[in-house]
Amino acid sequence: MSLERIKPEELKRNTFQTIGKDWLLLTAGVPGDFNTMTVSWGGLGVLWGRDVATVYVRPSRYTREFMERYDCFTLSAYPDAEHSKLAFCGAKSGRDVDKVAECGFTPKELGGGVYFEGANLVIACRKIYFSDFESRNFLDPKIMDNYAAGDFHRMYIGEITDMLAEK
Questions:
Q1: What are phi and psi of 158, to 5 degrees?
Q2: Which residues contact 145 (CB under 8 A, 6 or more apart)?
Q3: Checking DSSP bridges between strand 107-110 and strand 154-166, what pairing results, if any?
Q4: What is the CA angle 48-52-54, rounded to 5?
Q5: β partners of residue 43
Q6: What are residue 68's phi and psi, to 5 degrees?
Q7: What's the CA gap between 53 and 42, in Å, rounded?
Q8: Averaged pLDDT for residues 36-62
Q9: CA atoms within a 13 Å half-sphere pointing along the CA-CB vector of 133
Q10: Which of 86, 97, 121, 144 suits 41 as a labelling partner, its CA being 20 to 30 A distant?
Q11: Res. 56: pLDDT tops 70
């Protein structure tokens, strides 16, 4: 699979499908010190005149430690044939298992961050903002059903610094 550098406005994908149904791998850290997890909540857009990606990470996730420690992260999409690997990365913690070895991933570098060979879309980001969700700010009480344990997500906004997509 051949990837080429594109500008965010050249992306030709349904991001609702890519994020919400196909899922992405969020990989935080740098070559040699990173963790990855599956995400199905997030967004791409423009904020403060910058192309951005938004991701949400619970405090219990091991990847959160890497999001806090490092300035960069990547989001990467994979072909349908890799969906079981994304399911594994969403169900298992990097504290307990070497996801890279278990999935047979080959790490690659982009924008100071890490993604894995075989991706058909890679978005490299530099963190520019974060904020913690607070129960008092939910206007629809049904949303609280996602937080029975009180483990509110932290929202991270990253400026897109590089993007690769399948030719």
A1: -120, 135
A2: none
A3: unpaired
A4: 115
A5: 54
A6: -75, -35
A7: 7
A8: 97
A9: 18
A10: 97
A11: yes
Pairing relationship of beta strands 24-30 and 33-39 according to DSSP bridges: antiparallel
Q: Which two tokens stand for residue 19?
A: 């994020």
Residue 84: pLDDT band with limits 50, 70, 90: very high
Q: What is the pLDDT at residue 1?
A: 65
Token pair, residue 129, equals: 């903002």
Closest by CA to 58, choosing from 37, 44, 27, 31, is 37
Q: Distance (Å, rounded) from C-alpha 49 to C-alpha 72?
A: 19
Q: What is the set of domains in the chain, with CATH numbers?
A: 3-166 (2.30.110.10)
SS3 18: helix
pTM value surpassing 0.85: yes
Encoding tokens for residue 112?
């100071």
The contacts found for 145-153 with CB under 8 angstroms, 24 or more apart, are 151/58, 151/59, 151/60, 152/58, 152/59, 153/41, 153/56, 153/57, 153/58
Distance of CA 145 to CAs 69, 126, 151, 152, Å? 30, 31, 11, 11
Answer for the pair 70, 30: CB distance below 8 angstroms, yes or no: yes
Largest CA distance in the chain: 46
pLDDT at 167: 77
